[in-house]
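Worked Example 4.2. Read the sequence first, then its structure tokens.
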Amino acid sequence: MKQFIRVMKALSDPNRVRIIKILEQKNLCVCELRELVGLAQSTVSKHMKVLEEAGLVDYHKKGSWIIYRLTKGEESDYAGVMLENLKDWLTEEPLLQEMKARLPQVDRERSCAA
């Protein structure tokens, strides 16, 4: 029950859902996510911690950057099912479409230098 509640709470915030939808497209660092979502870096970091604890995202280090990616749901069946379902959901959401359109212009070197 605890893991189910953790996943549902993580997905109850619109910004965290937006982050999940953007990470479906590409693995990103906090600076890049900040640029796309339009939140403070500390806020994005807090959202990432919630998503990580729910088993929805994990990360790897690349130089000085921490790069976030969606999990495959290995740790939690609930996370895996929700990530799979989310792939088909919210495809017509205007804000998400706009964020996806801006994704090719996001540059890690520039985003993290700001």
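Now turn to a second chain, presented in exactly the same format:
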Amino acid sequence: MKPAYIHHIATATPSNSYRQEDVREIMKEHVSDRRAVKSVLHRIYTQSGIETRYCVFDDFKAGGSSRLFYDPDTRTIREPGTQERNDLYIRHSKELFTKLGRDLIDAAAGVEPKDITHVITVSCTGFYAPGPDYFVVRDLGLRPETERYHIGFMGCYAAFPALRMARSFCESHPDAVVLVLCVELCTLHLRFDEKTDHMISASVFADGGAGALVSAKKPVNSPAFEITSLHTALTSEGEQDMAWTIGDTGFSMELSTYVPDIINRNLAELLNPALQKNGITAPGVDHWAVHPGGRAIVDKVQASCEIPDHKITSSRNVLRDYGNMSSATILFVLKDVLSNGITPGDKTLAMAFGPGLTVETGILTAV
């Protein structure tokens, strides 16, 4: 069976960013007047492992104009409805999807718009039709017969099903060139309330996009990844601990404090199939690309698998500089792995978690 390769990874963020310490003070001011809640918020944000996050609104910046969550004239918090949030999602996500597609084509040696055969878009933070797949084809001048697919509402692990689809297309059609594009605008669903799950999700989620160009042709430029194997599994617990539902005031993101422990209890059983299929053990993995859903998740995976610090650096780098951008995040991590001295033949174990709890893993070989 002909292998499929990730030729290039592109990333993009909105132009607006906030320092985590500034967001901490904003949340302490507006979530509650109770001293105990302010103390909890201070601890959550200070221990998050995050320094910077990007978002599409500038409400809390001097001279900010978006006024989605904050009215500077009355100095009060707004609670926008789902439509208002989704309208911003439509505008900003289109820009990021198109930018990522263009950047991938420009960066891939010998690839032109006419060569793209499939477009797979991924997002769980908004909806519109025709969808982002349509606008990518139209705005990048791709062939009208380009096959289009959209993966929606799967959460933080959704880049893996997209890569699995891309690999299948390449195995079936050796000339296939696939764009996988993930864009998430998680901060549009920010909530200012005292519910613990909401305070935790507000402290980690951020906005960003990432994409990969996948083809059966061996990459001209190095380093790149061969998609060696991909695996999916469900834990026997945690269905209610990581979940998204749609409400009248945006999407409600549940991120329980129990998630790191659930992952830790199930990790060995979930990783064994991927490791055994590839004839390696955890110590034999050269690089770990763990989705940084939060600092505690990375800590639990590192401790459970006894991963040396230098093998999991990329996950902590992305958490520090960007936060959790849902499905796009793992591609940020893999791009960081590629940029930090990877050697041909190195094995990277990529891993992401999402609603269910679903655990997706993949073995990628450097070429």
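Notes for the reader: The mean pLDDT is 94. The domain at 225-366 is CATH 3.40.47.10 (Peroxisomal Thiolase; Chain A, domain 1).
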